[in-house]
Write a structure and sequence with these properties.
about 130 residues; mainly alpha
């Protein structure tokens, strides 16, 4: 169980550092714009620049902070309701929960940065 938990947390950290295809800040963006009257080559250049700005959002740092905070909170709750074994399990659950929250929060912020950037450049973002 301990090794599986460590592997899951490690994968979540790596996920926070990557730019998956299909996201709004890397690969094939999930952003939908009104293309009427839009020079698509200019749009793709603008999208690339906006994705570059979005990559500055510190997803890995946010994930690490949330993971540590979740582990502490889970450990405290586990210690209050049980013994040291329960505290360790609570810390593990809290770490995973915190990591997921950190990745999710960072990804949403990156997506918002891209949308705001495109809107600022005059594109009509539909989603």
């Amino acid at each position: 169980m301990k090794n599986g938990l460590l592997m899951l947390v490690g994968l979540l950290f790596l996920g926070g550092c990557s730019s998956p295809s299909g996201s709004s800040y890397g690969g094939n963006s999930g952003i939908i714009i009104d293309t009427k009257g839009v020079d698509m080559s200019r749009y793709h250049a603008d999208l690339t620049e906006c994705q570059s700005y979005a990559s500055e959002v510190p997803v890995a740092q946010r994930t690490a902070t949330s993971t540590a905070g979740g582990a502490v909170l889970g450990g405290v709750i586990g210690a209050v309701v049980g013994d040291s074994g329960t505290a360790k399990r609570g810390a593990g659950v809290g770490a995973v929960t915190g990591a997921v929250k950190g990745v999710s929060s960072g990804t949403r912020e990156r997506e918002q940065v891209v949308r705001n950037c495109l809107r600022g450049r005059g594109y009509r973002v539909l989603n």
